[in-house]
Amino acid sequence: MKNYSKITPEGTKDYLAMESRAIRCAEKRLSAVFKSKGYEKVMTPTIEFFDVFNRDSSGYNPEDLYSLTDSYGRLLVLRPDSTLPIARLVSTRFQNARLPLRLYYNQNVFVRQKNLTGRNDEATQSGIELMGAYGLRADLEVITTAVEAIESCTSADFKLEIGHAGFFKELCKKLNVTDEIVSEIYNCVESRNFVSLNNILDKIGKSDVTDCIRNLPRFFGGLEIIEKAKQIDLGEEGKKSLDYLKELYVLLGNAGLSNKIVIDLSLVNRTNYYTGIIFKGYLQGSGVSVVSGGRYDSLGAEFGRDMPSTGFGIETGALATVMLARNELDEEKTPEIIVFGEKENIVKALEYSKNLRANGVYCENSTFETLEDTRGYAISKGIKKVCVVGKTVREEIL
């Protein structure tokens, strides 16, 4: 049997010191933005019951999930998403809480990614959920918070694409096809697999709606896209979704974000719980969407507490990679002193190191047997001073 003890599973990676530091830095800055706006941190289990995600609204197929069983034979999964577990948490632990609830998280998610997506199966995410709030004020808060959070981490060029889940849903209703075919269309549009999409639409037949779906990538830009989309007969609900998107776009422009926001009516999401505004953000220097979110007003009812909600998740690892490449991390203190205890003063050296740290000095305790080796190590690490602890303490500047 082949031994895999020296490699990581496909879709995972080890994070070295600088990469880990970049992720910690991103999480710290994101959390500071969230907390400044009244959001409180929650944590959900890495392992959840399969039932939490075994619903049409999750958008996950069983083969997408990392599954296992507990000691009773019940099916468990590693969480692929943070929003559904938080909806479960709110419905069971916040039943009498005053709305709206402002919650944020920093935790990993696990999804079996298809090849060539550029994403790992294990990803670090940070995000917020604004639960129990409806309307323009809430959607504005969440989208502007997403922009503010990204800008707190990097000065890289950032674009946010916004759309409306209702627009695409109304398009699919006009097709009069089965839910299975609608799901295939969703997957093709989300993955930008237009060859497969055209094959599906060819079988449905030519119409204004199929032509619109074929040309969705062209529904990208400013307010003119809204007017173009209104030429399609989508009924009252479709018109309402476009009018709402237009109003939100104008307000975001008034908030000074006109250079960062574009309308994209081809936006869809594998998680089918979105009911209103949806958005994705892209950073220069990253090949994946760094932020994704939107409104999900029906999800709470599935867990027993009906409430309008909205939120987003940030791919912290992808954001950290950009920060690291641009040298935008916080300065981190490193040891400035190494303490070497002469043979009969090893314990005394430990106490001396402890006292230095108590006074705010970053220092290492030498584990070498000789002062010469300690000096060589200190020079290689860029440590400028050696404290030699014997009957007295002396300092050497290197």
Structure description:
The two termini are 52 Å apart. The chain has helices at 17-36, 83-93, 136-151, 165-175, 179-190, 194-204, 208-214, 223-229, 235-257, 299-302, 316-325, 346-358, 371-381; strands at residues 40-41, 47-49, 67-69, 75-78, 101-110, 122-131, 158-164, 220-221, 261-264, 277-283, 289-295, 309-315, 337-341, 363-365, 385-389, 393-397. It is an alpha+beta fold. Strands 1-5-6-12-11-10-7-9-8 form a nine-stranded mixed beta sheet. Helix 1 crosses helix 11 (316-325) and helix 3 (136-151) crosses helix 9 (235-257).
How would you concisely characterize the structure shown here?
The protein contains 13 helices and 16 strands.
**Low-confidence stretches at least 5 residues in length (pLDDT < 50)?**
none
Number of helices: 13
Q: What amount of the residues lies in strands?
A: 15-25%
- Name the shape in a single word: elongated
Query: How many beta strands in the DSSP annotation?
Result: 16
Overall mean confidence score, pLDDT: 92
SSE class: alpha+beta
Ends apart, CA distance between termini? 52 Å
Strand order of the largest sheet: 1-5-6-12-11-10-7-9-8
- The helix-strand sequence is HEEEEHEEHEHHHHEHHEEEHEHEHEHEE
Instruction: Profile the largest sheet.
Output: 9 strands, mixed
Binned, the helix content reads: 25-40%
Rg is: 26 Å
